[in-house]
Every structure is written in C-alpha cells, then in structure tokens.
Design a protein that fits this description.
This protein folds into two domains: about 270 residues, TIM Barrel, CATH 3.20.20; about 35 residues, no CATH class. It has seven helices and 17 strands.
C-alpha cells in the first residue's frame, strides 16, 4: 500500500528479538484462539465449513463516487459457518476518503447511517481505508469514534498497514486507533510490492519486527496478525512505456529491425528480448515458520488474505483453539 506519512522515528523495543528458528521437515500444528479468513464476494466456493476458522472477513463493500455504501455482500451466501462473519468496507481513493470523512458533512452522516444499518446483518464491521490524506487524520479518528459509539455489541475492527516503528503524523497511528476498536488486523504483507525491487511478500525477520511493534502498542487481546497466501513475480525489464520518436528510432537501430508494417496507415513492429522473472510466494513451510514466530511472541489471532489463494497443505498445520 502507499503510505502518506512523515519521516520514520526509530522504535526501540524493550523486548529482546526472538531468535528465528525454522521448522524441520515435520511441520508443527499451529493453534490460535482466533483464525480469520478473508473471502471475496462472488468466490464463495473458496470457503469450506471444514476450514479451522473462527471469523470470516467478507470482502467487500465499497463507497461510490457520491459517498454511498455499495456492494454489500449477503452473509447468507456463506453456508454452514458457525463462526462470526464481518462486513469489510473498503475505500482506496484519497479524494473519496477526504470527501466522506469531513466532519459535519451530509455524506459522512449518511455513510455512518448506512454502515450501522448494514452491519445489523453481520457479526461485525471492519474498516479498510488504506489511502487517507495526512491532513485528515483527526477526522478519521473521530469517524472511527462515531462508529464505535453506534455499533453497539457488534465487533468493530480495522485493517491497518504494517509498521516496525513510529512515524511522524501517522494517519494509521496504532496508539490512537487501538482504543477505538475491538480488533486490529495488521496487514503484515507487501514488504515488497509490484513496483519495488523483488523480494519476499513478508520476510520472517520483518514479520517478527512488525509483530513486536504491534504487540507493544495494540496488545495481544486486540491484535490480529495478517498473513499472505499470494506471491508476486518481477521481470528484470519492462518495455511497456511511452517513447519519443527518437527513442523508437534508437530501438530500430539497436535491434536491427527492418520489418516495419502498417496497420491502417500506422507503423508498427515487433521484437523479442529475454526476460528474467523472479518469483516469491508462500507455501506451507513459510506459513508455518511465520505462524510459529507469532505463537512464540504471544500473538493470539491470525488472519489470511485470502481464501482461494492458498496451498491446501496449510490447513493441515492449523488448528483452532476452542474456548
């Protein structure tokens, strides 16, 4: 995700770092009191009642151009699930977030009314607003406070980006947000992303640092550590871009291209170049190692993005602790 924050301030944990111990060939069964799985509406076939889940984040309602809540999934589409189902509401547009968060605005009042009405059919509500202008931090905090007051006995949760240290003027300040919600899902993935250099979606040392920092500010009773089921691929070159005429001529010369054709009068040509593709992904071994790190640190809840992307083998090493 993109961040809209100032310079980082080093975070000094009083806890000694946990020494990373990788699993052997026989992977342990990791157990947690809460195991969340995220399910995208329209892909309900990815869910099975046999999965060891306590909670489902049903993804996801959105906010339209006019600030209205739209795309609310029907929880009845998830059959035979005995756990809790949470409505996940997404807003990933800075201008739209600014528009709907303005204090006293008709759009904000209408959105809060829509959210409180929609959550009546769910066990909880999760806010996933990932692009909020820095100047709107206080209005975001007050927005969460209004929802907290209105939601009653429903579970109120939020998804927040990963942090390993404090940031100046952080819109997603763990310390400010944690008291306003019942759970905080820390999205401990996308350490490397589509536009970054190749690297793990969530390296183990990085995950350890994220979990330690989150535990210190959020606490084990509210923290959900997010884990990725997906991978990413990077090519060492990407020729997809706009070119000046001189750049096109340089390609023709460098590649010794002579076969120029015309398509309805427009010149075009093709050429091939070797591409090295680097792929990082998750399997049962990497997921096991990450879960055991979290267990060692005292994390009580994990959440997986998302159902349908995983190796089936992961469910053999996961167990839900029953109260």
């Amino acid at each position: 995700m993109e961040e809209d924050a100032g310079a980082e301030i080093p975070f000094n944990s009083s806890d000694d770092p946990v020494e990373l111990t990788l699993p052997g060939e026989d992977l342990p069964v990791s157990s947690f009191p809460e195991i969340w799985g995220y399910l995208v509406a329209g892909r309900e076939s990815a869910f099975s009642k046999s999965l060891p889940l306590s909670d489902i984040g049903y993804f996801g309602a959105e906010i339209d151009t006019y600030g209205k809540l739209t795309g609310i999934p029907n929880p009845r589409n998830i059959r035979n699930f005995s756990g809790r189902i949470h409505l996940v509401v997404v807003c990933n547009n800075r201008s739209l977030a600014h528009f709907v968060l303005r204090e006293g605005s008709a759009e904000r009042k209408a959105l809060i009314t829509d959210l409180l009405l929609a959550v009546k059919n769910f066990d909880g509500l999760q806010i996933d607003f990932e692009l909020i202008p820095q100047r709107d931090a206080e209005t975001f905090f007050s927005f969460l406070g209004e929802l907290r007051t209105g939601i009653g006995d429903k579970l109120f949760t939020i998804a927040l980006p990963a942090r390993t240290r404090a940031l100046n003027a952080d819109v997603f300040d763990y310390r400010r947000i944690s008291p306003l919600v019942d759970r905080v899902l820390v999205m401990a993935y996308d350490e490397h992303w589509a536009a970054s250099d190749p690297g793990p979606i969530a390296s183990l040392p990085w995950c350890e640092s994220v979990a330690q920092y989150a535990l210190g500010l959020i606490g084990r009773e509210k923290l959900i550590m997010g884990l990725p089921f997906y991978g990413r691929a990077w090519g060492n070159i990407n020729p997809s871009k706009a070119y000046l005429y001189s750049g096109i001529q340089a390609i023709l010369k460098e590649r010794n291209i002579t076969g120029i054709r015309r398509e309805n009068g427009i010149p075009a040509f093709d050429y091939e170049v070797p591409v090295t593709v680097t792929v990082y992904y998750e399997d049962d071994y990497s997921l096991s190692a990450r879960m055991e790190i979290y267990k060692t640190l005292g994390v009580r809840a994990v959440g997986f993005w998302r159902l349908g992307q995983e190796t089936p083998a992961v469910w053999k090493i996961l167990q839900l602790e029953r109260e």
